[in-house]
Amino acid sequence: MDANTPESVAIDLEEIRSSIDNIDAALVHLLAERFKCTKRVGRLKAEHVLPAADPEREARQIERLRSKALEADLDPAFAEKFLTFIIEEVIRHHVELRED
Predict the structure, then answer these.
(1) Which domains does the chain have, with CATH numbers?
(2) CA 79 to CA 5: how far, in whole Å?
(3) 1 pLDDT exceeds 60?
(4) For 53-69, how does the pLDDT look when each residue is reduced to its tens digit (9 = 90+)?
(5) Choice among 5-19, 21-35, 70-84 with the minimum mean pLDDT
């Protein structure tokens, strides 16, 4: 910590950063669980020769997440970017499963 930073500010920063670290860990675990589910979906799609992408569902999911973001006071554009990134990764995994 900077020598000019009061000790109480340093303590507050450490507490807040500890919370952020815990939230980041929870996010990683939640994403891992989500990808376990999407792998199951991918296997089903591969077994039944279904398309890797489902644009209608993806659009519904994005709208749903944008709405949830507004309820949570989170920028819906950020939420959409985040979900779009995840969807692209899921589709990539589904394509790989079809190629196996």
Answers:
(1) 7-99 (1.20.59.10)
(2) 34
(3) no
(4) 999 999 999 999 999 99
(5) 5-19
